[in-house]
Amino acid sequence: MSCKIIILNLPRDLTEDELKTLFESYGEVISCDLILDKSTGVSKGFGFIIMGLVSQADIAVKALHQTRLKKQKIRVKLTTQN
Fold first, then answer.
1. How far is residue 39 CA from its own chain's centroid?
2. Is the pTM of this model over 0.85?
């Protein structure tokens, strides 16, 4: 069963590919969505990852929560809607 993760406080210059690559080291990434401002196209600083297995998502959340990414401490947690 897949599991959705929200990632907050992302660096504004982070790309969707970089975000996906970060999570791929913990398991299968089904989708990656970096939320962009509609008028500027710049990241709003958060995004979503859907991972293939809940167990992989749990490991990724525990490993990445409160870590630094391009000098910013990111917050990573499971969403309530999967």
1. 22
2. yes
